[in-house]
Specification:
5-stranded mixed sheet; globular; 5 strands; Aminopeptidase; alpha+beta
């Protein structure tokens, strides 16, 4: 029998569950050493005066099963906003039960309801399970684009120029 999941927008009192999801994702992506998120940082950045992102949480009863963390972006060519999915994570015990698809579908419904032009995200090139899953829902790789990032000391140096 398939598990019945409940999906809902996160609230401030969900910060501990959000942090558990982020830590689980960091372990899965082999980046636990880089995860410096804390409950305090998440409370401020997600539920403070100027929220940077939104979270959709998935539950099996009262137990967190996964999450999607996303924010609005913008397409100049479409002249419309879109959704950028920063993180999608399902705890191992709940994988292969359709929860990832439910989380993506909930974001697609939000995009359609708000008149947004697209839903996009990045995936690590070694994550073949995720790539197969994303392609199974009709996503296509944007292989002609290379993502760049400036952070840490490089970001601080660039800010002074």
């Amino acid at each position: 029998m398939a598990t019945e999941f409940t999906l809902r927008p996160a609230a401030a009192d969900d910060v501990p569950a959000i942090l558990r999801c982020i830590q689980g994702l960091a372990e899965y992506e082999r980046l636990a050493h880089a995860c410096v998120a804390t409950e305090g940082l998440l409370a401020e950045s997600l539920f403070g005066e100027d929220p940077a992102a939104q979270v959709t949480l998935a539950f099996d009863g009262d137990t967190p099963a996964g999450f999607a963390l996303w924010f609005r972006n913008y397409s100049t060519f479409l002249a419309r906003p879109g959704i950028y999915l920063e993180d999608l994570f399902v705890f191992p015990a709940y994988r292969a039960q359709g929860l990832g698809r439910q989380l993506l579908a909930s974001l697609a419904r939000t995009a359609v309801a708000r008149g947004y032009g697209r839903l996009e995200w990045a995936v690590l090139d070694w994550n073949s399970d995720a790539i197969r899953f994303y392609e199974s829902v009709g996503a296509i790789p944007k292989s002609e684009w290379t993502t760049y990032q400036v952070s840490g000391d490089a970001l601080a140096m660039l800010a002074t120029t």
